[in-house]
């Protein structure tokens, strides 16, 4: 267990913000976490758990304790002819894990290639892309309660997954994830319902490796280089609106893209909404909307967390005033 004082969080957030925390603790095991919860909790000092920091916006220095898992490992805990169950440490890099599974021939997460972050965040956020969601492969989640300081194991059903959401995000009780157990397929069932994937794979053999290559190529075309521009990927979630609201908008915006969830609810593209408002041209201080993808806010020139949050509020106001739709940040503010 490593403990640091007045610690820079620059390498622990993908927005490249050089904010600091009063104390930073990195632990190697569940036993270490148990000890931290029992000994470091102070009613006068806040405590917050982070992963890779790919979904966090630090608004200011954190006047408390930041803790980070360094629990590693990929363990096969059960397998049969069709499935394999893998128990994975919360601090394993997500995309490295995807690569590992693809090379082993285990399917179910290949469409989630190149998403930044760690294993723990995948289960916390219910990450998803190109027709796949992590909720479809999570078997169980191991986590510690900050309140009771005890370990609990949650089944997939108990995680209460929904679009980019989970029990862990909504619960008033705070949980720190230590392991995630995934159920993957030995005979993959490919998700190829995205036009860009179909186009990339045209004339190629359809297998896990080529699908991963397709996803990586597609994402790299629209995503900024993280080494150059700090960002958190998609800043907002795609909003759900009622069918009546959609039909009214459709009369004015006949080419408005959508996905019909059922006969009452429609999911619309947040990126499209922002583009229609002229949001791609917006900037505040050193923060701006990425020119190739309206859903991404970037640290273009030494932005502060406040720059990014004010820009996000401006984008939200533009979309609300134009379409009557409230965009919800996918990123957590701290």
Account of the 3D structure:
The protein is of the alpha+beta class and 334 residues long. The protein folds into three domains: 2-69, Uridine Diphospho-n-acetylenolpyruvylglucosamine Reductase, domain 2, CATH 3.30.43; 74-221, Uridine Diphospho-n-acetylenolpyruvylglucosamine Reductase, domain 3, CATH 3.30.465.10; 225-333, Uridine Diphospho-n-acetylenolpyruvylglucosamine Reductase, domain 1. The chain has helices at residues 30-39, 94-104, 119-125, 167-170, 195-201, 208-222, 243-252, 270-276, 305-323; strands at residues 2-8, 20-27, 47-50, 56-57, 62-69, 74-79, 83-89, 128-129, 132-133, 138-145, 151-155, 175-185, 230-234, 240-242, 258-260, 265-268, 283-284, 287-289, 296-299, 332-333. The strands form six sheets. It has a five-stranded antiparallel beta sheet, with helices on both faces. A hairpin with a 5-residue loop joins strand 10 (138-145) and strand 11 (151-155). Helix 5 packs across helix 6. It is globular, with a radius of gyration of 20 Å. The model has no long low-confidence stretch (mean pLDDT 94).
